[in-house]
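User: For my dataset I need records formatted as: sequence, then structure tokens, nothing else. Please produce one.
Assistant:
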Amino acid sequence: MTVQGNYSALVYHAHQSLNSIKKSQQVKLDGDNLDIPSVVAVSRYDIKPRLTHDNDFRRRIDGSVATLKKLLEDGNTIYGVTTGFGGSADTRTDRTEDLQSSLLQLQHYGILAPIDKSDGTRARSTHERSHAMPSDWVKGTMLIRSNTIARGHSGVSLNVIETIIALLKH
């Protein structure tokens, strides 16, 4: 088969998968099986994701949290948990909750123009541009991040993942 034929088959399969997801109205997150049609379904077609109820999934998350807790109790240095980020990574702290709060504050900082706060019905001038990321991009990013941390390698609790999924549902 030619490259063109392979690509066409791939696109056709993705389109069929997206239509199937839209019919079933569900995307299940388990940390392992997220694909592009699922991301498109949630971000563009408002399909509501849900976490798997699989016991292995929950054990993986709980095990990751327990490992992080043990590493902290043993006094280990962990990037982004007991250290700063990026250029501040050489900074150390034992105030891990304060560090995480500071990270959230940093990421919530932004500049929004009046057009970013409108309902979209206001006419834009040719010089006025939004500073906000399109909502479907944000939804896709939230879904992918949820799936990534659902793998159980980050020490992130199930409650955090469930909260992100709840935000996607509303």
